[in-house]
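Sanity check. The docking grid for NAI depends on where the pocket ends up, so I'm generating a full predicted complex first rather than guessing from homology. Inputs follow.
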Amino acid sequence: MPRALLLENIDPVATEILGAAGYEVQSLRGALDEADLVAALDGVDLLGIRSKTQVTAEVLRSRPDLQAVGAFCIGTNQIDLTAAAAAGVAVFNAPFSNTRSVVEMAIAEIIILARRLVDRDRSLHAGTWDKSAAGSHEIRGRTLGIIGYGNIGSQLSVLAEALGMRVIFYDLEDKLALGNAQRCDSLEELLERAETVTLHVDGRAGNAGLFGAEQFARMRPRSIFLNLSRGFVLDHEALRDSILSGHIAGAAVDVFPHEPREQGDEFTSVLRGLPNVILTPHIGGSTQEAQHDIGRFVAGKLVDYTATGTTTLSVNLPTVVLHGSSTDRFALLHRNVPGVLARVDALVGEHGLNVDAQVLATRGEYGYAVTDVSAPLPAHLLAGLAALPEAVRLMRFGPRAG
Ligand code: NAI
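Predicted complex below; grid placement will be based on this.
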């Protein structure tokens, strides 16, 4: 029976899905350090982790039988992706299982900031009745400027419009404008038109310091600002200055350049204590619904990969989309050099087999070729394929695989 090891308290739906696919699943609450992880992976085919377990080159080297790693989260920095590809280990994550959760939090914060509810709440808890409409606004009819119109930005666009906001966006790429949203040609144009500006860019290195004093200066007076993307894209000193000067009326920040590692650790930031500023500990995507969907999504990807060879949304292998096969199938992950496919097909032909279907995709140094053949795969053909000098890993699927 194939085995799966799930660490870091992954949602039970993952155990259900892997169990239904025939895996014996061991689920542990905590993370494991390198030595313990290597020991625990003895005889394990699939590993599931979240952000705390480091899957190093040493772990991958020590456990050559490991087939795939599921990162039951968004980020994959904790996995040595290059070493994983070199070892023929597919890595999957859940890029959009918590998109909706982030969007709902952004919507909530836009309303809370526009109504100055944080300050009203603080006053009343402190015993002061401060009933006033001054500085309180509806969001209906106001212009929301979304920077980064990817999964989160575009979903936010739809919900914000449903609440009556006008939506404009700026993205480096030419994105489809949803609903009535309007694309801006430049970040400057967006900053000059929007009354609420929200950052949803990705974490590419070039985005470091994307938003600072110059950008705040371009924003309309008394605008609202949100960052739920990455801490390092924002100059926090510049935001503090803009809040204290009154140029920015309120802000919500969920991500920080240096986030405490452990629960209960002290949080230091120049943004602490500012009026009409919401600070949250990187919880934009943290809901039970998101955790459940991450469990379902990543477990599904692991099952699809090991059952059919499909690598859809793998973060480190070439993408090949496949369905179940009625014939025998093999997948060869190989070094991406000329002539491999010809050698594969020649070997198949030499064994008197016909290729029913074949798909090849490449990604950087690796190629991934999946081949369906008309008859059971003889052991000496499989041995010949595995012995090709370019082969990284050979896998066999199909009705006769065992
Ligand atoms: P995505 O990759 O789908 O979208 C990012 C978009 O930003 C892309 O369309 C890209 O072209 C655009 N972009 C990148 N740099 C840009 C720039 N300098 N100017 C304009 N556009 C730029 O990513 P997704 O899933 O929408 O996530 C967005 C951000 O939210 C990421 O940084 C992600 O790490 C973060 N995130 C935060 C969470 C939280 O808990 N606060 C949870 C989930 C994601």
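Relevant for the grid: The radius of gyration is 25 Å.
Also worth noting: The first helix runs from residue 12 to 20.
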